Amino acid sequence: MKNKNSLLHRLILQTIGHEKRQHYMIPIFTILLSLIFGILVIALLGKNPLQAYYNLLQGSGLAPKASYAGHKGMITDFTSFLNALTPMLFAALAVLIALKAGLFNIGVSGQMLAAGFTATVLIGYSDLPAVIAKPLVVLIGFIIGALAGALVGFLKHRFNINEVVSTIMFNYIFQYVISFLINTFYVDPVSRQSANVKQAGRLTLVDVVVGDYKMDIPLGILVAVAGIAVTAFVLGRTTLGFEIKAVGSSIRAAEYAGIRVGRTRVLAMMLSGGFAGLAGVTYYLGYFASIQPKVLVSTGYDAIAVALLGNSSPIGIIFSSFLITVISKGSTYMSSTSGVQAEIASAITGIILLFSACGAYVKYKVNRWKDMKEEM
Amino acid sequence: MNTIIIDGLSFALPLFIMAIGGIYCERSGITNLAIEGLQGFGAFCGALFAVCIAQYFAGNSPVPFYLAMLFAFLGGMLFSLLHAMLCIRFKANQVISGVVINILAMALTEFLTKQINASIFGAASNKFVLGVSARITVPVLSKIPVLGAVFTNLYPFEIVIALIALIAWYVLYQTRFGLHLRACGDNPHAVDAAGIEVSRVRLVAVMASGALSGLGGICFAYSISANFSSNIYSGYGYLAIAALIFGNWKIMPTLGACLLFGFARSGGYELVKFLEMPSSYQDLVMVLPYVLTLLMLIFFSKKNHAPKALGEIYDKGAR
Amino acid sequence: MSDYIIEMNHITKRFPGIVANDDVSIQIRKGEIYALLGENGAGKSTLMSMLFGMYEPDEGEIIIRGDKVKIQSPNHATKLNIGMVHQHFKLVSNYTIAENIIMGMEPVKKTLGLFPAVDLKKANQDILELSRKFGLEVDPTKVIEQINVSMQQRVEILKMLYREAEILIFDEPTAVLTPQEIEFLLEIIRSLQGDGKTIILITHKLEEIKKIADRCAILCRGKLIDVLDVATTDTKTMANLMVGREVSFTVDKPDPKFGREVLRVEHLTVKNEDKYEVVRDVTFSVREGEIFVVAGVSGNGQIELADAIAGLMKPSNGTITLNGVDITSYSIRRRNLAGISYIPEDRHNVGLVMDFTLSDNLALKSYFEEPFSLKGVVRPEEFTKYGDTLIEKYDIRSSQGNDTIVRSMSGGNQQKAIIAREIELDSPLTIFVQPTRGLDIGAIENIHKQIVTERNKGKAILLISLELDEVMNLADTIGVIYNGAIQKIADARTLTPSEVGEFMMGVGGKHA
Question: What is the nearest CA distance from A257 to chain C, expressed in angstroms?
Fold first, then answer.
């Protein structure tokens, strides 16, 4: 450690050395590193990286495009972006609550599918009027997701089955069983997907005419914002939140304090699954109106990135899901305009995720440096 | 009946070799959820190499296939270094690291496949077409009633896998390295005190896991899917994990689990065909291994013993 | 050329925030038993870890057999014929004794004349011979999980001998043993000395040093205080040097005033995970204003007894009555509310949520009640208020007060936080399990005073202790536990320390 006072060292200490600021400085550091990585790759491909990044913003309705089709504009792009953001927010909440209880919910995608499919079949194809259908879709989404989550929690509590293993198993079980059901009973022969749900049950209002624009208005985003507020409140200000965090930090200490560990875990998984269910209905009966058989959406996995990047805080995930959605949603436009393959978006997301997995180590290392410096 | 054995084996063996990799990794104390990503990335490397050299060989030459296996082996090993770095060097949460590797592998190979197809082969395609590997039938042995099916219509990779599995078994249970590796998963401090570098043993274990996963991946690419595309990520890696948990982190019982999965699958397909049901019923067959795993875990989870130090971050200083 | 086999000169080792060894110099002769005496945290283990190559000193030099060496790894130490039995055994639980001993130095054979493999047959044979040679008989094919602690220690010693160690370091070897096992171990150490080995013994137990050591180095707060000839020094002098001041072994305690019975335990039996009876048919009671001490050697069921009363383990038989109410089937929470405070043995994993703040930990058992929360909604301002009061009252020191993450606090202050929380619950019964373990003398005195104060207020105290001094100082009533069963219950004033000691070994009262 000869270069203890090198410039880089000092720079790092000054930016992310401060303990109070670390909880947002480290994720920002991570993102910057990943974006720089992205710039290098795009430049290597012989494209203009800044142009490509700007395209991402344009595609998400955060910057104006050069030209728009009829009845389209930046605002319609933005509402469409919000439409994609909604399921991501819910999915990230699902991962987050489980993480707080020390559980790893890899089954968000499967829970989304189960909830989305059930709501599609029960309400999506029914003739109920919109005022009844929409709330019912939300309710069913939450309940089915919560049941799927609670089952995982129960298996962990009763049989000590690792939740990572069981959620992966359930992902495939849901995927294949629902694929079978769709192909056998609900398939649209042309699209090879499930038949579209009726407008009454859909959580996104499609082609609403506002002034000169025709836009998609995602009603779910309001529920998502409410969901974030509720989560923040539950975790920060309720005894249940206190118990969830205690169980997540130390099972034995929680038990000693008189907390019922099994019950708390099942409850946490139930909430987690419930949010995953809401992600499912806002995805399959909002952003889309049908289900593609044999496919698990990547939202559930991306949500892990979002939750980690958001530093496992409900407010943090607003920012991180915003970022990840900009990258994924804007990638189509980027691909068509700058010619960079759209798939680079998920590669960048992956890199962000890779770096954020090292976050704890960076924090540990930086604090060690600081301790050594103070000693000198 | 013969078809069930032939197809079952050709599915079970690649699964088995990936599971052996997983056993190496987990017995050394590193949780490995990354098998899915490792097999995909390995298959990608192998497939890419095969496509690149295909023009130099005759259409029916087996050489590209063997080279693809070698490169898949190396590719998986290379990518597993990421998992090793995160888990050993950066002391990251091993579950998170595994999930990260999977997401990254999927994103990266999908992007690279398209990019390479576009810029090198000038085609807008998201796959590398490989075709199905030729099959061989062992004379004499294949004539044995019932069991003869084991030696009929074999993919060459099945023989390679059987050989490697034998070596892997020997190394794990008979050699000094194997002794050290299994000790790392139970009490790394004991290994350290015996003057053996824990992180080096674990590094080798993770790399072995990557290499074997890559090998398994390319075998699936050359049999079930006949090409490399994102379809390679359809859960074989997770199934391998299920198999090794099922097999209680031991090689022979894990072989049993893989064979069970393989025969359940091929048997189910045959049943669907036999009963002349529509092909969508095959999806129900696909569910079988996962349901089986869950049920077995419910009944046997008490008897299952994961390696003691599995997933624990090893810190030399801490006692 | 000196006649010393080991010389460690001017050794200094720093860790973040602490100087573990400060200019320490020791010289050890070949063939002697050399003891390192000091309290927890005095720097004994650190010094020996450097000799064993686990750390490198920041300053100073190490000379082995006249050669200056830089010991970079345990491997290197082994090559220099240095071996160490660690306080926490380093054994692979699912391996056989032989596999554990040979690990790293396995005999190799060639399978089919070609492939290298571990030769277990030869290993078993070698170890059988080795164990006979040194009188440490073991069955090499037994699995570690199935043998007891004393046998495991034997395996650790054989591990050193297998590596032909000449210098043997023992780190607190008697902490986990019963008195007979200790006697036997000391025998072994003496006979190893007879075989020409040099032995270094790390300990804080004066009697052991007096029994077998030739010389003794005393460390205090990282500094070498003195090196004494054991034969010519009395234990009192050693004790004073060890703690750095005059030790008063007594606590001021007025005569007891017993009130009604608070806790009654009847025919309590507890089984562990392996269905083994760790507590057998235990019956006793504790009254108001009484300190009831359960004395015993570690591992005789006292922890499980405390856990069963607090509800952390389920008894298989018997009843627990608190203030006349049968609480045997109560949950942990209900027991807390019914009036049990519990200071557990393991403060890191059980007593505290290490990643929570200090104020959250101080409210860990009352967060669900008013005023901390109302209808399930917590009130952070009440946590802060309560935290401030307790920090002040119990002098809990930390870097950021209420908001400090307890993981970053010192062991003594962590223990203060637990004791503050449990005493403030104002429960009629408080259970203390080894409350002073690993703390320095000042903190120990403080905790002893608190325990006596609570007792004087009329609380019932159940204290579980392994230290005979602590037992004799604090107890009103002593219950000695051995092998899960209570051997003797008596008024503390009627028992001498040696009588208690005999009961702890399971041999008490037989010749009376």
Answer: 5
